[in-house]
Specification:
By secondary structure, the chain is of the alpha+beta class. The protein has a domain of 257 residues: 2-Layer Sandwich (Alpha-D-Glucose-1,6-Bisphosphate, Chain A, domain 4), CATH 3.30.530. Helices cover 32% and strands 21% of the residues. The strands form three sheets. Strands 3, 4, 5, 6, 7, 8, 9, 12, 13 and 14 form a ten-stranded mixed beta sheet that branches. A two-stranded antiparallel ribbon has the order 1-2. Helix 7 runs antiparallel to helix 10. The termini are far apart. The N terminus is likely disordered.
Length: 425
C-alpha cells in the first residue's frame, strides 16, 4: 500500500515512520519459528467447552465455534422449492465473511473450502487448470492469509496466555479496585506473578510477568469500546495515564481491522520511560472462550514484537530511542463482553504476559502492584472523562457507521446476550 501514517509527529519518537508495506500476511506462529520460541504444550481451561481444531500450525489448540446448523423446521415456502442445496462455498464468500466481522464463521468456511480443494487435488479427474487456479488463490489471497494468521494467533494466545494467567495454586499477588468515578457497578480484580522456569520465553526480556485481570461494569457499551480500541488514529495521548506520545494506524475491513499503535509512558513512580509498539487483532466471538466466567463478546489480541525484528505484519518497526525501555515480547489477550449490569456496560477478562528487560530484583511485585493499579485505574478514569462523557463530540460514531457491518455484528452479540440475561433474571 505504501501508506504513511499521517498522525506521526515530527518527533524523535519515531525516527522510522510506521508504513504499511504490503498485505498483512504474517502470523504469530511464523514469527515464533523465526525466533525459535518453544511451542505451548498444554492448557488448563474448561475442556468441556472446547472443540479442538487440528488446523493450528503452531501446535496449539483453536477453540473455534462449530459451523452454524440450519433450522430443522422448514417453512411452507421452503417446501415448494425444488433446489434446497446450500450455495457452494467460494473464495469470495469467505472473504465476505472476513470483511463483515464474521471471523470465526470465515475460519470454518475456509477450512471446509481448503478440504474440498485438497480432496479434489488428489483426484486425477479434477486436476485441471481451474482447480489449480482456485488452490493458488486460496493460498495467496491476502485477506485469507490474514485470516489464517488470526486463527493461529488466537490458538497460540489461548495456550500461552490464558492458561498461565488463570492457573490455580500459584503464588499470586492480588489487587482489587473499586472507584465511584466509574460507577457503582465497576470492579477490577487483578492477579500478578513472575513466570516460572517452564513458562519463561528464553528469547525475550529477563523479567516476565503473568497477569490475569477481570473488569466488571465498565460504563461503556461494547460496540463503542471496540470503536475506541480499533480506530486508534483518533486516540489522543491525554486519554492514557502518563502517556507522553501516541501514534496509531487503524486497519480497514480488508485487513480484518488489525491496528497498530506506538505509545510512550512516563510514570511518575518509575525512573524510566516505557515505550511500546503493538499490533492488535479483533475477533467477534458468538460463543464463549473456554475461560471461567467468559461469555460471547469480542476478543482482542495484542503483541509487542521483539526488538530483533525490523518489520512485523508488513509494518516497519520503529527503533527504540535511547533512554527508553522498550516493552518488547509482551502479549495481551482481552476478551470484552456485554456487561452483566446491562447493555450499557462492558466486562472484560484479560490475560497478559509482560516482558521487561530488567532483573526481577529491580522490578519486585511490591513495586509492580501499585504501578499497574495506578495505570489501570488512571487510564479507565481518563477514558470515562475524555471519551465516554464527550462521545458526541468525537468521530468514533462516524467510523462505526462507515464500518456498519462489523459493528452491527458486535451489536447483535450484545442484543443476544441481553435477551439471554433477561430470561434468567
Amino acid at each position: 500500500m505504501g501508506q504513511t501514517c499521517s498522525q506521526i509527529p515530527n518527533d524523535s519518537l519515531l525516527e522510522a515512520e510506521i508504513k504499511l508495506e504490503g498485505p498483512l500476511i504474517s502470523s504469530l506462529a511464523i514469527h515464533n519459528e523465526e525466533e525459535g520460541r518453544e511451542k505451548p504444550t498444554h492448557l488448563e481451561l474448561k475442556a468441556s467447552e472446547a472443540t479442538p481444531s487440528t488446523c493450528a500450525s503452531d501446535g496449539g489448540v483453536d477453540f473455534k465455534q462449530g459451523a452454524p446448523t440450519p433450522n430443522s423446521l422448514a417453512s411452507p415456502a421452503s417446501l415448494l422449492q425444488v433446489d434446497t442445496e446450500p450455495e457452494p462455498l467460494t473464495v469470495d464468500s469467505v472473504i465476505g465473511l472476513c470483511t463483515t466481522g464474521r471471523t470465526m464463521e470465515a475460519v470454518v468456511a475456509l477450512e471446509q473450502l481448503e478440504l474440498q480443494v485438497s480432496s479434489g487435488a488428489r483426484s486425477p479427474a479434477t486436476q485441471d487448470s481451474a482447480s489449480a487456479r482456485l488452490a493458488a488463490r486460496l493460498r495467496d489471497e491476502p485477506v485469507l492469509q490474514r485470516l489464517r494468521a488470526i486463527r493461529d494467533r488466537r490458538a497460540t494466545f489461548l495456550h500461552r496466555l490464558a492458561g498461565p494467567a488463570w492457573k490455580e495454586g500459584e503464588n499470586w499477588a492480588t489487587i482489587e479496585l473499586r472507584d465511584p468515578n466509574l460507577g457503582d457497578h465497576f470492579r477490577l480484580q487483578m492477579q500478578i506473578r513472575f513466570a516460572n522456569t517452564a513458562e519463561r520465553d528464553p528469547h525475550v526480556a529477563s523479567s516476565q510477568l503473568i497477569i490475569g485481570t477481570k473488569v466488571f461494569g465498565f460504563p461503556m457499551p461494547l460496540p463503542k469500546l471496540i470503536a475506541f480500541q480499533s480506530q486508534v488514529d483518533l486516540m489522543q495521548k491525554e486519554w492514557l495515564k502518563d502517556c507522553s506520545n501516541l501514534v496509531g494506524k487503524p486497519g480497514g475491513s480488508d485487513k480484518l481491522f488489525t491496528s497498530f499503535l506506538t505509545s510512550v509512558l512516563a510514570p511518575k513512580m518509575l525512573p524510566w520511560k516505557l515505550e511500546e509498539f503493538l499490533v492488535r487483532d479483533f475477533v467477534v466471538s458468538e460463543e464463549a472462550l473456554p475461560i471461567n466466567e467468559a461469555r460471547p463478546g469480542v476478543t482482542t489480541m495484542e503483541s509487542s514484537p521483539a526488538d530483533s525484528l525490523n518489520s512485523y505484519f508488513g509494518v516497519e518497526i520503529p527503533k527504540p530511542r535511547r533512554g527508553m525501555i522498550r516493552l518488547s515480547g509482551s502479549e495481551k489477550m482481552n476478551h470484552f463482553m456485554p456487561g452483566l449490569a446491562g447493555p450499557e456496560y462492558t466486562d472484560c477478562i484479560s490475560s497478559v504476559r509482560i516482558s521487561v528487560p530488567l532483573n526481577s530484583w529491580l522490578v519486585p511485585l511490591s513495586l509492580v502492584k501499585p504501578f499497574l493499579a495506578d495505570i489501570f485505574a488512571g487510564t479507565l478514569k481518563t477514558v470515562k472523562k475524555n471519551v465516554i462523557d464527550d462521545w458526541d463530540n468525537l468521530e468514533f460514531e462516524k467510523r462505526m457507521v462507515e464500518n456498519s457491518d462489523f459493528f452491527n455484528k458486535i451489536q447483535a452479540v450484545v442484543d443476544t446476550q441481553t435477551k439471554k440475561l433477561a430470561s434468567v433474571t
